[in-house]
Write a structure and sequence with these properties.
Layout (H helix, E strand, L loop, with lengths): L3 E4 L6 H12 L2 E4 H11 L2 H11 L6 H12 L8 E4 L5 H13 L6 E6 L2 H9 L1 E4 L5 E3 L19 E2 L6 H15 L3 H5 L4 E5 L4 H12 L3
Parallel strand pairs: 1-3, 1-4, 2-3, 4-8
Antiparallel strand pairs: 5-6, 5-7
Helix pairs in contact: 1-9, 2-3, 4-5, 6-7
Bound molecules: BIS(adenosine)-5'-pentaphosphate and magnesium ion (MG).
The site of magnesium ion has 5 residues, from α1.
Length: 217
């Protein structure tokens, strides 16, 4: 079992890389952003609390996100390990994660920081869209479907964009990252867990770099 955190600002490629690792290695992607969006869509109590906060680009409360992560870790499919994508995002969440893992006799193996140039991220995010059916990710410039308008994976012709993927909200999301998330890196640094990957390289190159870390190469 290998448990890793993918850390990086909005648009760094956390979701792109996590879904590849899930596909290639049978690890499970735990994206708090995806879980919260599903809750908003379903209109659950968590979703009702999270909706406006997410649309403003601010962070949802630590209690809510650590709660949904704890519930998810108890499901039986996480045996090959977990990729935390977008969690933890604050010092309090990092402390909760330590407890959640310790309670289950587990530990973290790597914290992989995707190093990126923030100026390039706005373009990445505002160009992003996903398949409405299977959630495969695409980009207007960097990753178009092979056949225009048709999902490569499931053949659906419907796509969607996130309501928080506009320039103004992206700026708030980045400010939140700098103020609350980047400062948790030293917690993992002192434990020798942090590995850095150039997140500005091509998507395949980033994947290879992460796989090398997982394989201890
Ligand atoms: P979340 O969904 O986690 O969003 P985020 O952190 O802002 O990150 P993104 O999903 O935007 O970026 P990504 O790194 O996954 O990039 P991607 O792979 O898609 O969170 C959303 C909101 O939910 C938060 O603002 C907050 O309100 C709430 N929330 C979530 N978790 C929370 C928590 N723990 N605590 C509190 N609140 C929480 O890539 C982006 C684009 O670039 C894609 O189009 C992709 O195709 C392209 N791309 C990727 N890699 C490359 C590359 N190497 N080269 C060129 N293009 C690339
Ligand atoms: Mg994401």
């Amino acid at each position: 079992m290998t448990n890793i955190i993918l850390l990086g600002p909005p648009g760094a490629g956390k979701g792109t890389q996590a879904s590849r690792l899930e596909h290639d290695r049978g690890m499970i992607q735990l994206s708090t952003g995806d879980m919260l969006r599903a809750a908003v869509k379903a209109g659950t109590p968590v979703g009702l609390q999270a909706k406006a906060v997410m649309e403003a680009g601010q962070l949802v409360s630590d209690e809510i996100v650590s709660g949904i992560i704890g519930e998810r870790l108890d499901q039986p499919d996480t045996g090959k390990g977990v990729i935390f994508d977008g969690y933890p995002r604050t010092a309090a969440q990092a402390a909760s994660l330590d407890t959640l893992l310790a309670d289950r006799g587990q530990a973290l193996d790597h914290v992989i920081e995707l190093e990126v140039d923030e100026d390039a991220l706005v373009e990445r995010i505002t160009g992003r869209f996903t398949c409405a059916k299977c959630n495969e990710g695409y980009h207007d410039r960097f990753k178009q479907p092979k056949a225009a308008g048709v999902c490569d994976v499931c053949g659906s012709t419907e796509f969607k964009r996130r309501p928080d993927d506009n320039e103004e909200t992206v700026r708030t999301r980045m400010a939140e990252y700098r103020a609350k998330t980047a400062p948790i890196l030293p917690i993992y640094e002192v434990r020798g867990l942090v590995k850095r990957v150039d997140g500005m390289a091509d998507i395949d190159v980033v994947t290879s770099a992460i796989e090398a870390i997982l394989d201890g190469r």
